[in-house]
Design a protein that fits this description.
Belongs to the GATS family. Keywords: Cytoplasm, Phosphoprotein, Ubl conjugation. One of its GO terms (cellular component) is cytosol. The chain is of the alpha+beta class. The protein contains six helices and 14 strands. The strands form four sheets. Strands 6, 7, 10, 11, 12, 13 and 14 form a seven-stranded antiparallel beta sheet that branches. Strands 1-3-2 form a three-stranded antiparallel beta sheet, covered by helices on one side. A hairpin with a 4-residue loop joins β13 and β14. α1 packs across α2, α1 runs antiparallel to α5 and α5 crosses α6.
Length: 269
Amino acid sequence: ELPPSEFMQVADSTWLVLSVVSNGREPPGCQATGVTKIARSVIAPLAEHHVSVLMLSTYQTDFILVRERDLPVVIHTLAGEFDIYREESGECIPVTCDDVSNGFLKPKPPASPTLHPVQSPQTRFCVLTVAPDTLPAIATMLIDVLFYSHSPPWDAATGSQDLDSISFFSFSLIEGYISIVMDAETQKRFPSDLLLTSSTGELWRMVRIGGQPLGFDECGIVAQIAEPLAAADISAYYISTFNFDHALVPEEGIAEVIQLLQQRQESGR
Protein backbone atom coordinates (compact mmCIF):
# COMPACT_ATOMS: atom_id res chain seq x y z
CA GLU A 1 0.00 0.00 0.00
CA LEU A 2 3.03 2.31 0.21
CA PRO A 3 3.15 4.68 -2.75
CA PRO A 4 6.12 4.28 -5.14
CA SER A 5 8.92 6.65 -4.25
CA GLU A 6 12.42 7.39 -5.50
CA PHE A 7 13.47 7.43 -1.83
CA MET A 8 12.33 3.86 -1.08
CA GLN A 9 14.43 0.86 -2.10
CA VAL A 10 12.72 -2.54 -2.21
CA ALA A 11 14.59 -5.83 -2.48
CA ASP A 12 13.35 -7.84 -5.44
CA SER A 13 12.80 -11.07 -3.47
CA THR A 14 9.73 -12.15 -1.52
CA TRP A 15 10.66 -13.63 1.86
CA LEU A 16 8.97 -16.19 4.10
CA VAL A 17 9.33 -16.34 7.88
CA LEU A 18 10.49 -19.43 9.75
CA SER A 19 9.82 -19.60 13.48
CA VAL A 20 11.85 -22.27 15.26
CA VAL A 21 10.28 -23.95 18.27
CA SER A 22 12.48 -26.05 20.57
CA ASN A 23 12.26 -29.77 19.87
CA GLY A 24 14.00 -30.77 23.08
CA ARG A 25 17.13 -31.98 21.33
CA GLU A 26 19.55 -29.25 22.38
CA PRO A 27 22.90 -30.51 23.67
CA PRO A 28 22.96 -30.91 27.47
CA GLY A 29 24.44 -27.94 29.28
CA CYS A 30 23.81 -25.52 26.42
CA GLN A 31 22.83 -22.20 27.98
CA ALA A 32 23.16 -19.92 24.97
CA THR A 33 20.10 -18.06 23.74
CA GLY A 34 19.26 -16.17 20.59
CA VAL A 35 20.78 -17.07 17.25
CA THR A 36 23.49 -19.24 18.81
CA LYS A 37 20.85 -21.66 20.12
CA ILE A 38 19.87 -22.55 16.56
CA ALA A 39 23.28 -22.06 14.94
CA ARG A 40 24.12 -25.76 14.50
CA SER A 41 20.64 -27.09 13.75
CA VAL A 42 19.33 -24.40 11.38
CA ILE A 43 21.78 -21.65 10.45
CA ALA A 44 24.77 -23.84 9.54
CA PRO A 45 22.82 -26.40 7.43
CA LEU A 46 21.11 -23.63 5.44
CA ALA A 47 24.47 -21.96 4.79
CA GLU A 48 25.92 -25.29 3.63
CA HIS A 49 23.04 -25.58 1.14
CA HIS A 50 23.65 -22.08 -0.18
CA VAL A 51 20.47 -20.57 1.27
CA SER A 52 20.67 -16.85 2.01
CA VAL A 53 18.86 -15.84 5.21
CA LEU A 54 17.91 -12.70 7.06
CA MET A 55 17.82 -13.02 10.84
CA LEU A 56 15.57 -11.20 13.30
CA SER A 57 15.99 -11.84 17.01
CA THR A 58 13.33 -10.35 19.27
CA TYR A 59 12.78 -10.18 23.02
CA GLN A 60 10.47 -13.20 22.76
CA THR A 61 11.98 -15.46 20.08
CA ASP A 62 14.00 -15.65 16.86
CA PHE A 63 12.81 -15.55 13.26
CA ILE A 64 14.63 -16.60 10.09
CA LEU A 65 13.58 -15.12 6.76
CA VAL A 66 14.27 -17.14 3.61
CA ARG A 67 13.46 -16.31 0.02
CA GLU A 68 10.28 -17.92 -1.22
CA ARG A 69 12.08 -19.50 -4.15
CA ASP A 70 14.45 -21.28 -1.72
CA LEU A 71 11.63 -22.98 0.21
CA PRO A 72 12.09 -26.46 -1.38
CA VAL A 73 15.79 -26.44 -0.45
CA VAL A 74 15.00 -25.19 3.05
CA ILE A 75 12.48 -27.95 3.72
CA HIS A 76 14.68 -30.72 2.31
CA THR A 77 17.58 -29.40 4.41
CA LEU A 78 15.72 -29.17 7.72
CA ALA A 79 13.21 -32.05 7.47
CA GLY A 80 15.65 -34.56 8.96
CA GLU A 81 16.02 -32.52 12.17
CA PHE A 82 12.66 -30.78 12.51
CA ASP A 83 8.95 -31.36 12.17
CA ILE A 84 7.89 -28.64 9.73
CA TYR A 85 4.49 -26.98 9.60
CA ARG A 86 2.98 -24.27 7.47
CA GLU A 87 0.42 -21.89 8.92
CA GLU A 88 -2.88 -21.56 7.10
CA SER A 89 -5.77 -19.53 8.54
CA GLY A 90 -4.24 -19.81 11.99
CA GLU A 91 -3.83 -23.60 11.81
CA CYS A 92 -0.54 -25.51 11.62
CA ILE A 93 -0.48 -28.11 8.85
CA PRO A 94 2.37 -30.66 8.58
CA VAL A 95 4.68 -30.29 5.58
CA THR A 96 6.61 -33.16 4.03
CA CYS A 97 9.38 -33.14 1.48
CA ASP A 98 6.93 -34.54 -1.06
CA ASP A 99 4.86 -31.35 -0.78
CA VAL A 100 7.69 -29.27 -2.22
CA SER A 101 9.59 -31.80 -4.35
CA ASN A 102 8.53 -30.06 -7.54
CA GLY A 103 11.39 -27.85 -8.60
CA PHE A 104 13.80 -29.08 -5.92
CA LEU A 105 17.36 -29.24 -7.15
CA LYS A 106 20.25 -30.53 -5.09
CA PRO A 107 22.35 -27.40 -4.57
CA LYS A 108 25.90 -27.15 -5.75
CA PRO A 109 28.54 -26.99 -3.00
CA PRO A 110 28.87 -23.30 -2.14
CA ALA A 111 32.12 -21.45 -2.51
CA SER A 112 33.84 -20.37 0.70
CA PRO A 113 31.84 -17.40 2.02
CA THR A 114 33.41 -13.97 2.16
CA LEU A 115 34.74 -13.17 5.62
CA HIS A 116 33.31 -9.75 6.31
CA PRO A 117 35.02 -7.32 8.70
CA VAL A 118 33.38 -6.73 12.06
CA GLN A 119 33.34 -3.58 14.15
CA SER A 120 32.29 -3.11 17.76
CA PRO A 121 31.26 0.39 18.89
CA GLN A 122 31.49 1.35 22.54
CA THR A 123 27.71 1.91 22.73
CA ARG A 124 25.85 -0.19 25.33
CA PHE A 125 22.42 -1.52 24.38
CA CYS A 126 19.28 -2.79 26.12
CA VAL A 127 16.89 -5.48 24.85
CA LEU A 128 13.38 -4.63 26.04
CA THR A 129 9.69 -5.29 25.64
CA VAL A 130 6.56 -3.26 26.37
CA ALA A 131 3.08 -4.42 27.34
CA PRO A 132 0.86 -3.61 24.31
CA ASP A 133 -1.68 -1.69 26.40
CA THR A 134 1.05 0.72 27.58
CA LEU A 135 2.32 1.47 24.07
CA PRO A 136 0.22 4.68 23.70
CA ALA A 137 2.00 6.14 26.75
CA ILE A 138 5.37 6.05 24.93
CA ALA A 139 4.13 6.59 21.36
CA THR A 140 5.28 10.22 21.15
CA MET A 141 8.74 9.32 22.44
CA LEU A 142 8.96 6.41 20.00
CA ILE A 143 8.12 8.67 17.05
CA ASP A 144 10.73 11.19 18.19
CA VAL A 145 13.46 8.55 18.50
CA LEU A 146 12.55 6.77 15.26
CA PHE A 147 12.16 9.76 12.98
CA TYR A 148 13.69 12.87 14.52
CA SER A 149 16.78 11.80 16.48
CA HIS A 150 20.00 12.36 14.58
CA SER A 151 22.52 9.66 13.73
CA PRO A 152 26.27 10.17 14.24
CA PRO A 153 27.69 12.34 11.43
CA TRP A 154 28.52 10.56 8.19
CA ASP A 155 32.14 10.99 7.17
CA ALA A 156 32.05 11.73 3.44
CA ALA A 157 35.83 11.30 3.14
CA THR A 158 35.85 7.71 4.36
CA GLY A 159 32.29 6.79 3.42
CA SER A 160 31.50 5.53 6.89
CA GLN A 161 30.20 6.49 10.28
CA ASP A 162 32.33 7.01 13.35
CA LEU A 163 31.70 3.64 14.99
CA ASP A 164 32.99 4.61 18.42
CA SER A 165 29.33 5.37 19.03
CA ILE A 166 26.65 3.99 16.73
CA SER A 167 23.01 5.05 16.47
CA PHE A 168 20.83 1.94 16.44
CA PHE A 169 17.17 1.56 17.37
CA SER A 170 15.05 -1.47 16.49
CA PHE A 171 11.29 -1.74 17.04
CA SER A 172 9.26 -4.80 16.06
CA LEU A 173 5.58 -5.63 16.57
CA ILE A 174 4.94 -9.28 15.77
CA GLU A 175 1.58 -10.92 16.54
CA GLY A 176 1.03 -8.43 19.36
CA TYR A 177 4.46 -8.90 20.93
CA ILE A 178 6.69 -5.84 21.03
CA SER A 179 10.48 -5.98 21.04
CA ILE A 180 12.80 -2.97 21.26
CA VAL A 181 16.57 -2.61 21.09
CA MET A 182 17.94 0.79 22.10
CA ASP A 183 21.13 2.22 23.53
CA ALA A 184 21.35 2.80 27.27
CA GLU A 185 21.31 6.60 26.90
CA THR A 186 18.12 6.55 24.82
CA GLN A 187 16.49 4.27 27.41
CA LYS A 188 16.79 7.06 29.98
CA ARG A 189 14.33 9.15 27.93
CA PHE A 190 11.54 6.60 28.45
CA PRO A 191 9.47 6.00 31.62
CA SER A 192 11.40 3.23 33.38
CA ASP A 193 8.25 1.60 34.77
CA LEU A 194 6.90 0.84 31.26
CA LEU A 195 9.98 -0.82 29.76
CA LEU A 196 10.37 -4.47 30.69
CA THR A 197 13.66 -6.36 30.52
CA SER A 198 15.20 -9.49 32.01
CA SER A 199 15.47 -9.70 35.78
CA THR A 200 19.24 -9.19 35.56
CA GLY A 201 18.83 -6.05 33.46
CA GLU A 202 21.98 -6.94 31.55
CA LEU A 203 23.48 -4.63 28.95
CA TRP A 204 24.64 -5.71 25.51
CA ARG A 205 27.42 -4.69 23.13
CA MET A 206 27.12 -4.79 19.37
CA VAL A 207 29.19 -6.37 16.65
CA ARG A 208 28.36 -4.91 13.24
CA ILE A 209 29.13 -7.15 10.27
CA GLY A 210 30.27 -5.67 6.97
CA GLY A 211 32.40 -2.75 5.92
CA GLN A 212 29.89 -1.82 3.22
CA PRO A 213 26.27 -2.87 2.48
CA LEU A 214 26.02 -6.65 2.29
CA GLY A 215 23.22 -7.22 -0.22
CA PHE A 216 20.89 -10.22 -0.17
CA ASP A 217 22.39 -12.90 -2.40
CA GLU A 218 25.35 -14.02 -0.30
CA CYS A 219 24.92 -16.96 2.05
CA GLY A 220 26.80 -17.85 5.23
CA ILE A 221 27.01 -14.36 6.75
CA VAL A 222 24.93 -15.28 9.81
CA ALA A 223 26.65 -18.66 10.14
CA GLN A 224 30.16 -17.19 10.21
CA ILE A 225 29.18 -15.18 13.30
CA ALA A 226 26.78 -17.58 14.99
CA GLU A 227 28.87 -20.76 14.79
CA PRO A 228 31.96 -19.51 16.70
CA LEU A 229 29.70 -17.97 19.36
CA ALA A 230 27.67 -21.19 19.65
CA ALA A 231 30.87 -23.20 20.09
CA ALA A 232 31.78 -20.90 22.99
CA ASP A 233 28.20 -21.03 24.39
CA ILE A 234 27.76 -17.25 24.08
CA SER A 235 24.26 -15.83 23.71
CA ALA A 236 23.63 -13.45 20.83
CA TYR A 237 20.67 -11.53 19.45
CA TYR A 238 21.06 -11.08 15.71
CA ILE A 239 19.32 -8.44 13.61
CA SER A 240 19.69 -8.29 9.84
CA THR A 241 18.86 -4.96 8.22
CA PHE A 242 18.73 -3.69 4.64
CA ASN A 243 22.43 -2.75 4.69
CA PHE A 244 24.25 -4.49 7.53
CA ASP A 245 23.96 -7.33 10.05
CA HIS A 246 24.23 -6.76 13.79
CA ALA A 247 24.92 -9.20 16.62
CA LEU A 248 24.28 -8.17 20.22
CA VAL A 249 26.27 -10.06 22.87
CA PRO A 250 26.38 -9.69 26.67
CA GLU A 251 28.61 -6.76 27.63
CA GLU A 252 30.86 -8.83 29.86
CA GLY A 253 31.64 -11.19 26.95
CA ILE A 254 32.53 -8.64 24.26
CA ALA A 255 36.32 -9.11 24.60
CA GLU A 256 36.02 -12.88 24.13
CA VAL A 257 33.66 -12.37 21.16
CA ILE A 258 36.05 -9.97 19.42
CA GLN A 259 38.92 -12.41 19.98
CA LEU A 260 36.89 -15.33 18.55
CA LEU A 261 35.89 -13.36 15.46
CA GLN A 262 39.44 -12.10 14.92
CA GLN A 263 40.67 -15.70 15.05
CA ARG A 264 38.02 -16.61 12.47
CA GLN A 265 39.22 -13.74 10.29
CA GLU A 266 42.85 -14.84 10.50
CA SER A 267 42.13 -18.53 9.90
CA GLY A 268 40.14 -17.64 6.77
CA ARG A 269 43.02 -15.84 5.10
